[in-house]
Each structure stands twice: as structure tokens, then as C-alpha cells.
Amino acid sequence: MKIIKLHDLYFSPFIEKDEIAAIVKNLAWQVKDDLPENEIPIFVGILNGCFLFAADFIRAYQGNCEVSFVKLASYAGTKSTDEVKHLVGINEDLTGRTVIILEDIIDTGSTLQEIYNIFRNKNVKELKVVTLFFKPDVFKKELPINYIGKSIEDKFIVGYGLDYNGLGRNYPAIYQLTNKPKMKNIVLFGPPGAGKGTQAIVLKEKYNLVHISTGDVFRFNIKNETELGKLAKSYIDAGDLVPDEVTIDMLKDEVEKNSDASGIIFDGFPRTASQATALDEFLAEKGLQIDAMIALEVPEDLLVERILERGKTSGRSDDTDEEKIRNRFNEYNTKTAVLKDFYEAQNKYFGINGVGTIEDITHRISTVFETL
């Protein structure tokens, strides 16, 4: 889970979908256990918010039942000052029936009071209320809430049917209103020879960012024989890849050390979709997020020329072998393609023309960075 932005507000992860599923199933089982044998209740979902909850609840209910959905509306009376509340969508004869209202969330109880009064006047046998979420701190009505899935504090939430100005209902988990992340964090990518390292240095100074290079972090931990360094070295010495969780733990330490920074440049990580997901989840725990993946785009043939020229003085043998250079590009393109899809799905991918002077390229990156 990651921080999401809806309209002008930000929301951080609050309740995961697996926990919601467990709560819903428990509510359905409680209701079934409390009903007389062979009782056929009618479940009434209150639109719009409860449609996801009602659907999952009814699937989890182990018994025969009827289902209906209603919406509280108002219409003008004979006088302009009159306002009469009524339910739209209920056509069944409820006389002598057990009616169970399904609500996604109950806070002050004002809407529920209106709905409760309308149903109570329909000669029902029994009227019960089931709510997925309940805010006890602000509940003001003397109404029986028969089944409560989870009591929560009085903070605005979205997801699983709940919205903010129409958006957010489709998220399978619940997110809670939070402050706008104070840090701007980017993943900086670029093929070998594109000048990514140079740009990282410039951006670091220009925007007071922290540059976290995975390679540097690994070398520091191994050289200083930290617990994580020893663990990473054990995998390396065995010829195995260092597990993602070890790398993430190293990066966590670096983020913790730089909590007052204006932002972070992640260099060399993530390299896979699973790593990107793990990074999102960690940052979300801190109220942070990746704001953009910025990738420098340079024609491959031009980069090959640059690296071969660099190889004359760099002392690196792989800078003088064109076949090895192109193999490095193939590896980069494969990894970038996966991450490009990942961040494009979040509208966070920005491809930058990497041809030109250092100043030109910095200007292009800055144009993107300053809009985040």
C-alpha cells in the first residue's frame, strides 16, 4: 500500500484488504448465529458507500436471504420551506419481516436516524443495524448499533466504497487522511554513460536532497561490518543474490538517518516491480512516497561512443568492449521497462531527453521536479 492523492488531499494506508475481509466474514457469521433457524432476513444496503461491503457481506452470509438497496433522498413539500425525507429503492412489503440495515460507516448517526425512523414505521418484525466502521467519539444518537465491525477514530477515510468527492471508492483497502508528504523523493534512472551520477550530484546540491546509491550503501555496510553488511556478504560469498528484504533494510536505515532532508534521490534501487512495491510500502509507513521516476533517455549508439571514449582513461575493461557495453544496455532496458510500467500506472514516470549539456539536462529534470 502507498500514499494516494485524491483531488487536493493525500491519504495514507490505514486498513489492509485482508483485515477488511476478515471483519466482514466475522460480521456475517455473527448475524447468522443470532437469527432463528429458517429465518429469511432482508438485508438493506444504504447507497452509495456500502455497495462493496454489502456485496462481500452477503457472499459471506451462510443462509437464505433477500437483498435490497436504498438511498436517502429529499423532495420539496407543498411549501418551499418543507423538506420530507424518504427512501428511494425500497419496494418490498416489510410487514412482519426481519430487516437488517447494512452501513459502511456510522459517525454522528444523523443519516442513520432518518433511515431508522422510516423503517421502524413499516411494521417490521425486527430491525437491526450492521456497520463495518463506527466512530464512537462523534456518535450522538440513542440508536442501537447491533453489530460493529471495527471502531475507529474520527478521521476521514476513503476506499472500499468510501469516497472523497466521488473518488476513492474503488480502492480495495482503507486509507486515512494525512498531510502532504514533506519530502520529494525520486527514483533516478539512466543507461550506462547517460550522466546519471553527474545529475544526481547537481540535483542534490540544488534542492538539498540526499543521494542514496544502493552500491554505496552496500559497500559501506560490508566495509564497516554492520549486521546487515555481514548478512549481505554471506549471500555474496555464496554466489547468491542478496534478498530484497536485506537491501530494503539497508535503505530503511539510510532514510531514517536523513528524516529531515528535503527529499531523497534513490539510485540503483528499485530494479524490479517487487522491489518498487516494497519501497512504496516502507515509505508509506513513514508518511512518504516516491513522487517520480525520472529516466534519462539517450540513443544507445551515442552512449556506446561515449563509453568507448571513456574507456581510454577509465581503467575499466568493460568500457573498452562494445559487446559487453551493449549487454549492459540490454540489462538496463529490460529492468527499466518493468519499472516504467510500474510507475506509469501511478502516473509517476517521466522520460527526460538526456542529450545536451549538463545544464540543459539539469533544467529538463528541474522542470519536472518542481511540478511534483
Word description of this protein:
With about 375 residues, this protein is of the alpha/beta class. The model is unreliable at about 75-80 (pLDDT under 50). α3 links the parallel β6 and β7. The protein has helices at about 15-35, 50-60, 110-120, 195-205, 215-225, 225-235, 245-255, 275-285, 300-315, 320-345, 360-370, and strands at about 5, 10-15, 40-45, 65-75, 85-90, 100-105, 125-135, 145-150, 155-160, 175-180, 185-190, 210-215, 265, 290-295, 350-355.
Short overview:
The protein has 372 residues and is an alpha/beta fold.
First CA to last CA: what distance? 20 Å
**Can you tell me the residue ranges where pLDDT is under 50 for at least 5 consecutive residues?**
75-82
Arithmetic mean of pLDDT: 90
Instruction: For the largest sheet, list the strands in their spatial order.
Output: 5-4-3-6-7-8
How much helix is in the residues? 40-55%
Q: List the helices and strands in order.
A: EEHEHEEEHEEEEEHEHHHEHEHHEH
What portion of the residues fall into strands of 2 or more residues? Answer: 15-25%
- Per DSSP, the total helix count is 11
Shape: elongated
How many β-strand stretches? Answer: 15
Give the class from helix and strand content and strand pairing: alpha/beta
Features:
15 strands; 6-stranded mixed sheet; alpha/beta; single chain; 372 residues; elongated; 5-stranded parallel sheet
Sequence-ordered SSE layout with sheet pairings:
Blueprint: E1 4-6, E2 9-15, H1 17-34, E3 42-46, H2 51-60, E4 66-76, E5 83-88, E6 98-106, H3 110-120, E7 126-134, E8 147-151, E9 157-158, E10 174-178, E11 184-189, H4 196-207, E12 210-213, H5 214-223, H6 227-237, H7 244-257, E13 263-267, H8 273-285, E14 292-297, H9 300-314, H10 322-344, E15 349-353, H11 358-369
Parallel strand pairs: 3-4, 3-6, 6-7, 7-8, 11-13, 11-14, 12-13, 14-15
Antiparallel strand pairs: 1-2, 2-10, 4-5, 9-10
Helix pairs in contact: 1-2, 4-11, 5-6, 5-7, 7-8, 9-10
